[in-house]
Amino acid sequence: MGCLYGVGVGPGDPELLTLKARRVLTEVPVIFVPKKAEENESIAESIISGLALHFESKLVRIVLPMLRNKHKLQEYRQRAADMIWQHLELGQDGAFINVGDPLFYGSFIHVVKVLQSSHPETKIEIVPGVSSINAAAARAVVPLASDDENIAVLSGDQKTETIRNALEKFDTVVFMKVNTIFDRLLGILEEMNLKDKSIYVRRCTTEAEEIVRDIGRLQGDKLDYFSLLIVRK
Amino acid sequence: MGCLYGVGVGPGDPELLTLKARRVLTEVPVIFVPKKAEENESIAESIISGLALHFESKLVRIVLPMLRNKHKLQEYRQRAADMIWQHLELGQDGAFINVGDPLFYGSFIHVVKVLQSSHPETKIEIVPGVSSINAAAARAVVPLASDDENIAVLSGDQKTETIRNALEKFDTVVFMKVNTIFDRLLGILEEMNLKDKSIYVRRCTTEAEEIVRDIGRLQGDKLDYFSLLIVRK
Asked: What angle do CA B174, B175, B179 make, to 5 degrees?
């Protein structure tokens, strides 16, 4: 039976792949590429294309859309798992590429869960990657945490109480996928006098990177899905 | 003036360096190596030695001990910053290597702070690295967070109330430097019925790696400084 590698390809800059990720991608006969829709480009694929290692012939594209309908979503994940299993069963190793780190908000998590429930014997190895959090902090040159400090990472559309609690209790709070809650969050940060301690980072380490320290000017804007906010007290 | 690179060298396995980290370390004329004491080996140095790129001749070792005396600590950091500045001032680029990621509990944070206060004009570039959190999750094959989940990272000797609050409110809690609080933490996890959801990981991706799922057996043990606990509800 083949081994399924979950390979983190880092935040965007192809140079932020690890040596191990590059080796595994070079060695495996199949690379599974997740994409949101047939016609979309895959961000993970665009990162490894940047390495110019001529992976093209071994790419297998897998459609994993973002849907609210959980039943439909599960169907797509099951199809992805089945497609991967076909290769593993034949003894082929395969690598599923994931932007950032596979186990940190990665689509790999869902696919592997379905795969493990149909085939508990599946061999899994994870190649961790540089997450967007570490990369965003690097680009903004802002510490995430130091010594005995605590950090919270919140994702998506959170309750105001949850946001306030994190901002009160933690030294640093990172908001992932901040696009869905930005205007509301901005209001909370203003009230808590934390607006000036906040840095917005969009698509860090890519050509579309944007770092905004005066975050008030983003009010009302339609923000990118790949954007986060670091609040460092 | 030279540029100071803060280079994350990853959690331990030399293959988890990024391509960029390896390039920068190959190109710069000086590599600053932090170590706890003159006679100690530097973990960051042992990681890059594993790459066998013959860095030896350009290493400059910097002693940064762990001290409770803040005044003494500041003296060491000032000395480190002065030593680095001597090179930058001459137009030499230098790379300060840091286990994991430089801005995530890295000693680089302190040195750069002192350097920037004496020489605000210092050019800084950070090369983010794979943090021990992502690497530990990878080795244990446990998701850190997914979808709209939240994660907290606590470090060092925290109040019981802070620990309880994090365990109640977050989907995943990671305890860094867990050696200082392990037995107390174990008691809290038992009370909250979370002991079975906890995984202890020591020196992940190195030869001394240890992953313990039955964490009760560690009670009373003297644990390693480089150990963490992932609690995934």
From this structure: 150
